[in-house]
Amino acid sequence: MSTTIVQNKEYRNKQRIKDNFISAFIGFFAIVWIFPILWTVWTSLRPYNDIISNGVFSWPRHLNLDNYFTAFRKMGLTHYFLNTLYVTIPAVGLTLFLGSLIAFVVSRYSFRFNLSLLLLFTAGNMLPIVLTYIPVFWLYIKIGDLFGNRSLLYNNYLGIILVHVAFQVGFATFVLSSYMKTVPKEISESAIIDGASVFRHYWNVMLPLLRPPLAALGVLMSCWIYNDFFWALILMSEDSKRPVTSALRQLQGQYITDFNLLAAGASIVAAPTVILFFVLRKQFVSGLTLGSTKG
Amino acid sequence: MSDVNNGISRRSVLKGAAIGGVGLAAGGSLLAGCGKKKVTGDVHFTIRGNLSDAGAKINVAVNEAYTAKTGNKVISQAVNSDDFQNNFVQIMQGTPDDAFGWMAGWRTNARADAGLLADVSEQVKALGSTLSAAAIQGATNPKDGKQYIIPTTYYPWGLHYRKSTMQELGLDPENIATWDDLIKLCEATQKKGLVGYAMGDKGGWEAMGTFDIINMRLNGYQFHIDLLNGKEQWTDAKVVDVFTHMGQLIPYMNKNFLDIEWDGCRDLLLQKKAGAMMMGSWFANDFKAKSQADYDDLWIVAFPEMNPEHGIDSIDAPLDGVSVAANAKNVEGGADLAQFWGSKEGIDAAVAAGDTSIYISSEFDTSTYDAFNKQKLAVLGEAKNIGFFLDRDTRGDFAGPVVGPALQSFLKNPKDVTKILENVQKQWDALPAL
After folding, report:
1. Which letter does DSSP use for residue A252 in this model?
2. pTM for the full model?
3. Which end of chain A is least crowded, N or C, by CB within 10 Å?
4. Domains of chain B (ranges plus CATH)?
5. Pick from A170, A188, A184, A191: which is nearest to A109 by CA?
6. Are residues A143 and A20 in the same domain?
């Protein structure tokens, strides 16, 4: 009797040490990850003047929110946020729609090319976008010239939306098809026996079941597209049409950059994604494990 | 010079010709009228750099003055300078704005050779004698002798220091006439516990300013430009001499010169931790941001003479201006606006809006300038030859990737100079022809 108690105690102690070690480990990395963000916020509260006269590591003489107000005013944020919405909402919607269509076909119907089709879409995802930007640029210009309007795709929201859809649809297909494979075949079979057409099968049977992965993907993709700066920079010649990430570049001068103001701007621009994360935390976490149960 | 923009249509000329002899006279007046043809249509304009409050005001003021004069509307946008430069080739091949703020030197000439910029020689000619010969020379593409940029402003690279620091140390930087004087000044500053010659070269380009000026002082402007364009060898004893002199400054530099960028270097001066700093004087507003007293304390002098043959006849003064996209919708309108930015009316509008840039034009009124800006003018006035700074005087794929790291490794290990210069020459030789 007494020996088991001792053993339990030993076991508990061992467990406690292990827990503590793990907590310390996690805590350490949490600090490493959170530090740059906290430093950005900290920097954003200090005036530029304070930094140049006393140095970055000096004790602050003044702390205020002036940088936030200035950044908000200088960046014309409302305008750029709207631009981001014009791009993000259609792009995410289209990606999910097209991705789920392809995923549906490759996972529910078996034909000769369905694996290679899935591979094609997934492989496209591996291509670094910087390799493709010159061809995409010329493609847009040439297509525009073909229709006699150079701004058909280039310097146009349509072009940015399409390029995002093209690059994200591969990942969406991959995730959605993996998820669809976990949905019992019997559901599809009964739908087909009941006489559902292909589209009805997709729209009324599969799509409602896809709600969790669609929500998770929607959140992830909104964040990715929201954070994009590259395509807008390459494919938009007018700055007033670019998304909010490029508004940040407005805060940088040719020679002189007020990093405190920039930090405030960055915090403002990052805020929506952070808020989105906290509101849709559940979807985010399920997004991490999407498609991991069955490949 | 299409029919549409001439104001006189082809038909009216034919009509004139029909009346016989009068036709000749009409033809003559048409030719004479060419120079003053009216340019119409909206003009799109890109300005680089952030539209800080002052910059925005100047941009609006000049463009509004142009609209008031010509009736042509200007639609302007501000873009990040780096993004614009990095994507320049794409932007120019897409749907570029008609005119845009740009930089003279290699960055203009190479793009002009590629057919991306419109010829503005006519506009430069119209501005004529208001531009100094050196400015026109600087804006001219050596390959075809035409101008692709209307030069407007420039700023000097010189030795900056704080008057109060020098006074406390009992030094007189106004009288550093020779290299030995400069070394003595650095030594004296260092003895008092300050940094003698502030340097920050983390960016790789900052030390180019020091290299440029020593090369121009020792070997003259022509040798410097020839060297940067492959007509002289980097392994030349003359270049080695430049590096030897640069090496003499290293003991007086702050030890962390490879850890800080130009702004760290500026802070040394701002915080009264350094004596002299070789830098372009764009940062003066940071002194003003700290306080008016700090700004009033700032001063600039020309780099001292090193070779009596060349005296102080050269300076690095990056020349900015306005260029026109060859691919633009309204090339003529763009060129007209570009010319306006370089004209007296344009400059007056800019200065009235608070611009403190140094304009090239001889018609530019400096009476509203403060002492520091007048001193900048004086420093510029001493020079006959204007370099544009190494990264604008030579190929873009040579300055940043080759010379920058070479200067950094030299500052780290000055003894390796022969090896470093051989390496630079080898890399120049390996560059593909343009």
Report:
1. B
2. 0.79
3. N
4. 43-155+317-363 (3.40.190.10), 157-316+388-430 (3.40.190.10)
5. A188
6. no
